[in-house]
Amino acid sequence: MRLGIRIFLVYFLFVGLAGYFLLSTVREQIRPVVRQSSEETLVDTANLLAEILHDDLKAGTLAQGRLPEVLKAYGLRSPEAQIWGLGKHQVSHRIYVTDAHGVVLLDSSGEAVGKDYSRWNDVYLTLRGQYGARSTRSDERDESSSVMHVAAPILDEGQIIGVVTVAKPNSSLQPYIDRSERHLFTLGLALIVLGLLVGAALSWWLARSLRRLTHYAQTVSAGERAELPYYKGGELAQLANAVERMRTELEGKAYVERYVHTLTHELKSPLAAIRGAAELLQGDMPPAQRARFASNIEGESERLQQMIERLLDLARVEQMQRLEDEQQVALSEVLDELLLAHAPRIASAGVQVRQQVPADARVWGDDFLLRQALSNLLDNALDFTPPGGTLVFDLSRDGQRAALSLFNQGPAIPDYALGRVSERFYSLPRPASGRKSTGLGLNFVAEVMQLHGGELRVENVAEGVRVSLCLPLRRMS
């Protein structure tokens, strides 16, 4: 299972459980809080009525006054009130009054007058000077049928002469409880979903960052170029820098070791030739033979110098992970300057050169590296073009890429060598001299193309060989 999925699942489990327990706890608190608030209102109402009923109860005129008619009218009222979006269309309080013995003297519902309520907790506790309240179900199997009763004593000079009870069905509070629970559920669900989205985004970002770093490490391990992922501070940036330092250290050691072996191997042949010629020159020999061996020493020394210079150029390019000076390069101007610099050799070789690249052709790249790469291509083409042959520079476009090609008239590359000509130290004998080059020219060109996000193509065509540099027309991202 991927790291990002594991992180998200852990986050999902944590947020889900936390949200569930939070919603459950708050939901469990809604019902008692609403009922506590309602009970507090019933306490105030009962005590207010106790003061209002005092005189009639003391005088014994409770049933003969206007109060029964008032309570009856109260029960018939329709408030038509909108309370926080919920309509209230009828009153829900029931009021009854008992004497000091718990016998009901007055009931707003008219159903309990004359009954003995002295055993109900609201009356029983109040007559004993305690807080009297009870909650009784009209249907024992239905919790929503419960009714809250809150009583207050009617006092006369400190003596309890009666009890007034205000009752309210809990069903009248249920719409408000249901609405609160719906709002809470909706809000809680939205917060959980938002939290999960944030968790998913965080998991995706972290997994993506680690994948980029993993891809970088795998690419570098495969010997390919890759740009170090950029992270703005934090542990990921430190990890990326640590990986880069480790890559630099390991590559540096391996690079030096590889180059020491290859350079030692390639230097053996010219050094052996120089040493042999020097030993022969120490003895007596005809002047013509002495001149030939001296020329061999000079030629092999020049070969060593070229090899060292090209190895240094190649080493610099191979160590680059990206272009350091990317700009628009005018190909036509570069080629004109290059042909002018090689004019003496072109003239001495008797080669015809046609430069057919449009003057407005431009590509994104490093001007210096592209000049070196084109110079290597031209040197290589001149080595394999016979006197009187033709070289042609041309340009073609394919979408956002340009193919700069160099055709040289001459012998085709053997099939066994066609796929190896860009390998380091691999070279074919030159037709004019039969000698091989350093084998680093086309390898350098291939490295420069890879650095530019392009490629080097070498193919046999009619009457010769065509080498193409495929380059991006716009800036590399």
What's the arrangement of secondary structure elements?
Layout (H helix, E strand, L loop, with lengths): L2 H57 L7 H10 L4 E3 L2 E3 L5 E6 L4 E4 L13 H7 L5 E5 L8 E11 L2 E11 L4 H48 L12 H48 L5 H33 L7 E4 H11 L1 H7 L2 E4 L6 E4 L1 H18 L5 E9 L2 E9 L5 H4 L22 H11 L3 E7 L2 E9 L5
Parallel strand pairs: 9-11
Antiparallel strand pairs: 1-2, 3-4, 3-7, 5-6, 6-7, 8-10, 11-12, 12-14, 13-14
Describe the structure.
53% of the residues lie in helices and 19% in strands. The chain has 477 residues and is of the alpha+beta class. A hairpin with a 2-residue loop joins strand 11 (390-398) and strand 12 (401-409). The mean pLDDT is 78.
Summarize the entry for a quick read.
The protein has 477 residues and is of the alpha+beta class. It has 3 domains: 3-179, 2-Layer Sandwich (Beta-Lactamase), CATH 3.30.450.20; 229-321, Signal transduction histidine kinase, dimerisation/phosphotransfer (DHp) domain (Helix Hairpins); 323-477, Heat Shock Protein 90 (2-Layer Sandwich), CATH 3.30.565.10.
Order of helix and strand elements from N to C terminus: HHEEEEHEEEHHHEHHEEHEEHHEE
Going by CATH, the architecture of the largest domain would be 2-Layer Sandwich
CATH level-1 class of the largest domain: Alpha Beta
Strand runs, count:
14
Report the span from N to C terminus.
Answer: 31 Å
Mean pLDDT, all residues: 78
Q: Main beta sheet: strand number and arrangement? A: 5 strands, antiparallel
Going by CATH, the homologous superfamily of the largest domain would be PAS domain
Unreliable runs: none
